Amino acid sequence: MAAVKRITRELAEFSNNPVPGVSAGLASESDVFKWNVILTGPQGSPYSGGVFTLNLTLPTEYPFKPPTLNFTTKIYHPNVSNDDKGSMCLGILRSDSWKPSCKISQVLEMAAGLLKEPNVDDAVETSIADEYKNSPDSFEKTAREWTRKYAK
Amino acid sequence: MSAATNFNFSVIVIPSAARGAAANLDFPTLNQSLSFALEVSSPSDFQTLYSQDTKGGNTFKGLLYVPDLDPTDPCDNHDLVPRNVTRKANLPMDDLKLVAYAPLITQHCSRQYMYSAENDNVAAFIFYGVPANYSNYTDPLQGEEYPFEYPVYYLDGAIGQPLMNKLSEYSANMSEVYNGFNLTEAGYDIRDYARIYTVISTRNTNPMPGLWLFLLVVVAVLLFIIGASSLLMHLFQFHYRRSLRRRIANGEVDLEGLGVGRITVPREFLAKFPMYGYVAENGGQTTPTRQKRDNTSTPPKEERRKERVKIPSAVVVKEGVSIVIPATISERKSKGKERVKEKPRSPTDTAPEMAEVSTSKGIPLSSPTSAKSRSSPKVQSPTTSTPQLGTQTSPRGYHQTSCPICLDDFIHQETTVRELPCLHIFHPECIDPYLESQSSLCVLCKQSCLPKGYVPIRLTNAIVRRERLLRSVRERSREVAAASANGSGSGEGGLLWRWRLRRLRRQEQDLMGRQALVRAGRGGYGERGRGGFGLGPHYREQRVVEDVVRPRWRETMDRIFPGFR
């Protein structure tokens, strides 16, 4: 199976050459399509000090279809839906802009980057995005509070 | 019920020799000046008492006769019915059609007559009013069902009684009938029969009233309008379909964006895409390189694989001159990747760049001679008939050093690659199944791999409608974007705009229903300020779940009015 081959390869590549601030591994040894990802909040961001766990789900059609990223840790972020799914909105993860040449490590890098700097143009939570744009102080406060509350 | 309009009594001559074929009573009438004829057509002189015939327009024909009654029956009134009146026995044949004739005396007697007539070959029954009780004639079977098939008429007594008397004059043979002497003198055979022949014409009493006629006209006009508009719509739809087909053929339409389900590349097209041995961009351009490598103890395959990364950039030998290109592997690799990420719109974007690169290095990327000499049968795919060309053109594409699908590096002159029309290359085993079953777009640049002019779908009216609507919505969103960019900030737009959006949404559902596709995931149009409507790609996430049934009337409506939605 081509997908499994590629995913295994990517997993090996990732463990050899990990992205800073990101650790990832298979959720269970038997299923390469489900990864557990742990993001550590970058210094200088309201998320610093927080540890965020995510589920990375790869479709069986991978790499033709994009993986999905879901935060299992609650996070106050314009690009993460504020529901029990916690789905992360990444531009490259949309099926129309997804490219098979995109690697999981790049996706995770991007995700880590979003913690440092949210992308308001691509926001799922428009109210948070507005807050981020218009009153960054209150946004930072809430984000910090949530990080303390949920991501310790 | 059809009423009588006309009673015609005349005398016909039935030859004594006529048998069998005479049943249709096609006999000549007796010379009118020597006999009698009676026409009753004034509506006040007769009445239709009963008729099963509903259509009207029929005629009932037969020889006039008086049905036999039991001799002891008191109804056999010889004051009214003369003894020598035409009875059944006086008729030449048994199988002739008859019209029964009797006075309307009492209800009982009328019934006796009718039952008697039923045994005969009767086409109709005519009663006439007896002068004595002329004013209060009674319906012969008043209040009862008529068990008879023949129609029953009533004739005014002032006409009926003389006719009865006339009937008695035409019961014997030719010499004894009225004016018999003159008739035989006139040459009529004495053995022939002269009998009274009756023709009753009817018309429908239920002609179409004015209201019905009016309604009919209204319905006809409506039907005409429906038909005309249907025809017009069909014409328009035909025109639209044709123009859409033309635009698809010209490659002006983004088929995947239409959301018409999965569009894949047929195998026969796939087989036409060039497949050739991968040639690293600058490495192994010329045969000398090969020879050189061959001379210097060809390393085993495993070793070569390790070394392969050096081959592309390390040394290029052209006519014995070797030039070392300073680019390192890692640089090259990342460069290639970047370029892939840039999502080049078309090969022409990168072609000048490539040319520049090659000229700056002073090395022609490829020359026909070198290409020819380079082509080794080992790496050529047997499926492509023009592999030389393919090999030669490959480097003008993108700097792809690895297959974007499996991420494996291509091995110089070893890996067979498939080149799509957009010049991106892949392992055939990676890209072929995808194009055959998932999509017709290149996974890197999303450019269609289908040949120009090829229309891969059946163009239905729904697709045509959808395309038109999508186009208008896109134009509109462009306008809005332009307007807001100008700072005028026209806002959300008018009613028409909203209506179009709603229609688009509904159409989407409809189309899905028709295609039996149910979208697996969430997502819709115009997701959060993406400007345009990214309808297309979502459809690739559809999967067939069940056939959504459209009501039949809607199908029919669609067929009649293809333009409506």
Attribute tags:
heterodimer, A: 152 residues, alpha+beta, Ubiquitin Conjugating Enzyme, four-stranded antiparallel β-sheet, 18% strand, B: 565 residues, Glucose Oxidase, domain 1, 3 domains, eight-stranded mixed β-sheet, three-stranded antiparallel β-sheet, 15% strand, rod-shaped, ATP binding (chain A), E2 ubiquitin-conjugating enzyme (chain A)
Characterization of the model:
Chain A: This is E2 ubiquitin-conjugating enzyme. Chain A: Pfam families: UQ_con (PF00179). The complex is a heterodimer of chains A (152) and B (565). With 152 residues, chain A is an alpha+beta fold. Chain A has one domain: Ubiquitin Conjugating Enzyme (Roll). Chain A has four helices and four strands; from the N terminus they run αββββααα. Chain B has helices at 107-118, 157-169, 180-185, 210-249, 267-270, 287-295, 301-307, 310-314, 329-341, 347-361, 368-374, 387-393, 428-437, 461-485, 495-515, 552-560, and strands at residues 2-14, 37-40, 46-50, 59-65, 98-104, 122-129, 152-155, 193-204, 275-277, 315-318, 321-324, 416-419, 425-426, 517-519, 542-544. The model of chain B is unreliable at 284-395 and 513-547 (pLDDT under 50). Chain B folds into three domains: 2-204, Glucose Oxidase, domain 1; 209-259 and 458-565, no CATH class; 267-437, no CATH class. In chain B, 29% of the residues are buried. The longest helix of chain B has 40 residues, at 210-249. Chain B is of the alpha+beta class and 565 residues long. The radius of gyration of chain B is 51 Å and the shape is rod-shaped. The interface between A and B is medium-sized, with 21 and 23 residues.
Helix share of residues of chain A?
A: 25-40%
State the CATH architecture of chain A: Roll
- Tally the structural domains of chain A: 1
Mean pLDDT of chain B: 69
CATH fold category name of the largest domain in chain B: Glucose Oxidase, domain 1
Shape of chain B: rod-shaped
Count of individual beta strands of chain B: 15
Largest interface, C-beta within 8 A: A-B, 21 and 23 residues
CATH topology of chain A: Ubiquitin Conjugating Enzyme
- Uncertain regions of chain A: pLDDT < 50 for 5+ in a row? none
Low-confidence stretches of chain B: 284-395, 513-547
* Strand segment tally of chain A: 4
Count of individual helical segments of chain A: 4
Classify the secondary structure makeup of chain A into a structural class: alpha+beta
Count of helical segments of chain B?
16
CATH class of the largest domain in chain B: Alpha Beta
Sheet having the most strands of chain A: 4 strands, antiparallel
